[in-house]
Write a structure and sequence with these properties.
Blueprint (H helix, E strand, L loop, with lengths): L1 E2 L27 H9 L46 H11 L2 H4 L1 H4 L5 E3 L3 H13 L3 E6 L1 H5 L3 H4 L3 H11 L7 E5 L7 H11 L14 H4 L3 E3 L15 H6 L5 H8 L2 E6 L7 H4 L3 E4 L7 H22 L6 E5 L4 H10 L9 E4 L18 H16 L1 H7 L2 H7 L5 H15 L4 E7 L25 E6 L8 H9 L8 E5 L12 H22 L4 H23 L1
Parallel strand pairs: 2-5, 3-4, 3-9, 6-7, 6-8, 8-9
Antiparallel strand pairs: 1-11, 10-11, 11-12
Helix pairs in contact: 1-2, 5-12, 8-15, 14-15, 16-17, 21-22
Length: about 550
């Protein structure tokens, strides 16, 4: 059995009793018309989410925490019109969302509107891809904001272009600007934010937030910084898919939407990017206006050619950017309603692409973390040969990848075996300081180690007597006579539910002693019919023999 310990991102796990899991806007003529439409949106109310996903080879089932009730639309109950604008969803959610109160960094920029928990907005992007409707995703990071400081902007034509571009964001109905809110706690970036985003086109007009019309003319997104891709390296791919968010790469492939890369040369040979309709070299777009304009012209040329070759004047291209702060300028200008490219799609993917080429540019794509994501995740999910479609073969070699599922499974099995003790399988780490949060398998720990402090998780307990009694024992479990303690010692980061024991072996031994005591009491009371009493006596003998062997071992 499993006794939970606290966690975050939403996977599935065994519990003895399985709980149920909570599971067309035309371009607006004016800002006021847009806001009035957002105000009338009533379809963003309740959150009752059905999440289901299969996890691990052993088919464990786990419960998921439900998102905050005011921040999401009920999955399956929202308006599925692919023409509904993304800003409509963001504005409505921003006016209702309590998320700012939980984010200290965002409280410092309270004049701006932020939308939290935007799963419905992410699902709407998936719908737009399938229906081949336009949309754009821009990431605004600390490095981007540094380019907008007044004294920096004044020294560069390209940066002045960036400053002008952001002034047009409220006019783009299907633009999402995803802000990494953590850096707004830095006073320098907070100051730049106030300089750039508290003008009339961005500032909240009323502190009450009673309706989107009073609340703000434009809403930023604070949540997942990178738009989920759905590629086999992603740890959370299955969790996102269970929420109807399959990722932009997968959705585009399923819908037959062609990609075009705007990025560095080292990415252009990554097979799943190379099969697109073009490549735009972004090496110098941040350095000069001339290079920027040349790249924009090349994007327009690719868009025209794709429409001509398909025979469909509305056929979109999904432009994938890895071009630093210049990507924000290019996406904004290409997506503007006055441009023919406004019918296309744009995603600021950034360094999320680098690992596919073996470039370790961030903590999540280099070293052991890079090997785990681009070797183990990819190879285990799609196999050694298909892995070469997702990750450059030389990158697989650079990461030191094993090319077969069998090799990876064997190594993982050996690691699992090394973590076991007599009564315990392993400490299972979870995320988000919630014992029922998403699993973080790479942070599991041996049963004999002290339970890590300031983390959440649970102790997975041993299943019981060894293999020689498997048939009899499994029958007793199936009949509900024996109730194996599948987990114990659950705790959150703050010590919530922490018991006096600090080792998983101790927690699981205690849990098994309690189960044995329950069985012995049932025999002593003699209230069961003859058949059940015999089964209880067999169960007591098997469990006691195993427990005694554990003590003597």
């Amino acid at each position: 059995m499993l006794i939970a310990v606290a966690c975050v991102a939403l996977p599935l796990r065994w519990t003895w009793s399985v709980r149920s899991v909570r599971t067309s806007d035309a371009p607006f003529a004016s800002r006021r018309a847009r806001l009035a439409t957002a105000r009338d949106a009533d379809d963003f109310a309740v959150v009752t989410q059905a999440l289901a996903s299969a996890v691990e080879a052993e088919s464990r089932v786990s419960t998921r925490a439900s998102p905050p009730p005011d921040s999401l639309v009920a999955f399956g109950e929202e308006d599925e019109d692919p023409d509904r604008s993304l800003q409509r969803i963001l504005l409505t959610n921003a006016a209702r969302s309590p998320g700012r109160d939980a984010d200290q960094c965002l409280r410092e920029v309270h004049e701006s509107a932020f939308s939290h928990g935007d799963d419905e907005m992410l699902r709407q992007i998936m719908r737009k891809i399938r229906a081949k409707r336009p949309w754009a995703w821009i990431r605004l990071a600390d490095g981007d904001l540094g380019q907008l400081k007044n004294d920096v902007v004044s020294k560069s034509d390209a940066r002045r272009r960036f400053a002008r571009a952001i002034e047009t964001w409220p006019d783009l109905e299907n633009l999402v600007v995803s802000v990494g809110s953590w850096w707004l706690c830095n006073k320098r970036y907070e100051t730049i934010w106030h300089e750039r985003f508290n003008a009339s086109r961005f500032a909240v007009r009323s502190s009450s937030g009673a309706s989107p019309e009073d609340y703000a003319p434009f809403a930023f997104h604070a949540g997942c910084f990178y738009l989920p891709m759905g590629t086999p390296d992603d740890d959370d791919r299955d969790a996102w898919a269970a929420k109807g968010i399959v990722g932009w790469v997968r959705a585009a492939r399923e819908a037959g939407v062609k990609l075009a890369l705007v990025g560095p040369r080292y990415l252009k040979d990554v097979p799943w990017l190379a099969e697109g309709v073009g490549w735009v070299d972004a090496a110098k777009v941040s350095a000069s206006v001339g290079a920027l304009d040349e790249a924009l012209a090349r994007c327009a040329e690719i868009s025209r050619a794709a429409k001509r070759d398909s025979g469909n004047p509305d056929e979109p291209v999904l432009f994938v950017f890895q071009a630093g702060w210049a990507a924000k300028v290019m996406i904004t200008e290409l997506a503007h309603p006055s441009k023919p490219t406004s019918a296309d799609m744009f995603v600021d993917a950034g360094t999320a692409l680098d690992g596919f080429a073996g470039k370790g540019t961030r903590a999540f794509n280099k070293g052991e973390e890079g090997k785990r994501k681009y070797c183990e995740n990819v190879v285990e999910r799609v196999g050694g040969e298909e892995a070469k479609f997702w990750v450059l073969p030389e990158a697989l070699d650079a990461y030191g990848c094993e090319r077969s599922r069998e090799a990876i499974w064997a190594r993982r099995a050996a690691k699992e075996e090394a973590m076991k003790t007599k009564h315990c399988v392993a400490w299972r780490r979870t995320g988000g300081c919630d014992p029922e949060g998403p699993r973080e398998p790479r942070n599991d720990a041996p049963c004999a180690n002290p339970i890590p402090k300031k983390t959440s998780g649970f102790c997975e307990c041993a299943p019981g007597p060894p293999k020689r009694e498997t048939t009899v024992y499994e029958a007793l479990v199936r009949e509900g006579v024996v109730r194996p303690p599948r987990s114990a010692g659950g705790r959150g980061c703050d010590g919530t539910k922490t018991t006096k024991h600090s080792y998983c072996e101790s927690e699981c031994e205690k849990a098994w002693k309690e189960e044995l005591a329950r069985l012995e009491l049932a025999v002593d009371e003699g209230r069961e019919d003859g058949r059940t009493e015999k089964m209880l006596r067999v169960a007591v003998a098997l469990v006691r023999e195993w427990m005694d062997a554990s003590v003597s071992a």
